[in-house]
Amino acid sequence: MPHPRILILLSLFIITSIPSLAFPQILTGKVISVADGDTITVLDNRHRQTRIRLYGIDTPEKGQAFGRKAKQFTAGLVAGEIVKVKIYDVDKYGRSVGMVFVHGRNVNEEIIRAGYGWQYRKYCRASFCSKWLTIEQMARNVGLGLWRDKHPVPPWEWRKGRSRNHMAAGNRSVRKAIQGDTGIYHGNVRSHVFHGPGCRHYNCKNCTRVFRSKQEAMRAGYRPHRQCVR
């Protein structure tokens, strides 16, 4: 027979290991803002604001086709209304993740049904998620909402593309700085080496000589840093 202390520890482990989805918290309040199709803010009776990310769905972003329409649809359902929210989790941005109900209607599901959102493949893990896939397919089949577009881009793919573009733009800026295409050059008065804006020695304590071009620096007898200026 296991020791009673072992049984207690085992019970605690089992309880803490159960996903938070099994124990939702309930929040009731008025929707005071709609950020986009899947994010709202609720004000409760203690005048506390809670930002809610709708569980299990993903709607077009603001910069995407149908992003504004998705926001309008969600606002049409909940803006200014008293809603009940089953909160399951908190995401990395500090938003409460949950299911929203208004007048007995499941808002998350209604957004998919109207064709303004996807079942969120990566995060929808509850038993009803397979049903939501069916509802999504029905909306797609009849061309509702965003499904009027023959090749809509899922928001998670769109966000990846934007992230890659931002990284590429950042890399281009760094390359320009390294190659000396932009900025002012700082010359080290002791070593007579000059640095471009992208160099980690750009503001060294002896880098007090300022040049407006590579040519100006070299005419003054300075040589380019081999890793910073090409």
Q: Keyphrases for this structure?
A:
6 helices; 4-stranded mixed beta sheet; alpha+beta; 230 residues; OB fold (Dihydrolipoamide Acetyltransferase, E2P)
Can you characterise this structure?
The protein is of the alpha+beta class and 230 residues long. It has two domains: 20-152, OB fold (Dihydrolipoamide Acetyltransferase, E2P), CATH 2.40.50; 179-224, no CATH class. The protein contains six helices and twelve strands. The strands form three sheets. The protein has a five-stranded mixed beta barrel with strand order 1-2-3-6-5. The protein is elongated.
Question: What is this structure, in a nutshell?
Answer:
The protein has 230 residues and is of the alpha+beta class. 34% of the residues lie in helices and 24% in strands.
Low-confidence stretches: 13-20, 166-171, 173-182
Form type:
elongated
Structural class: alpha+beta
Number of domains: 2
- Name the helix and strand elements from N-terminus to C-terminus, one letter apiece: HEEEEHEEEHEHHEEEHE
Q: Helix share of residues?
A: 25-40%
For the secondary structure, the number of strands is 12
Radius of gyration: 28 Å
Strand fraction band? 15-25%
Mean pLDDT: 85
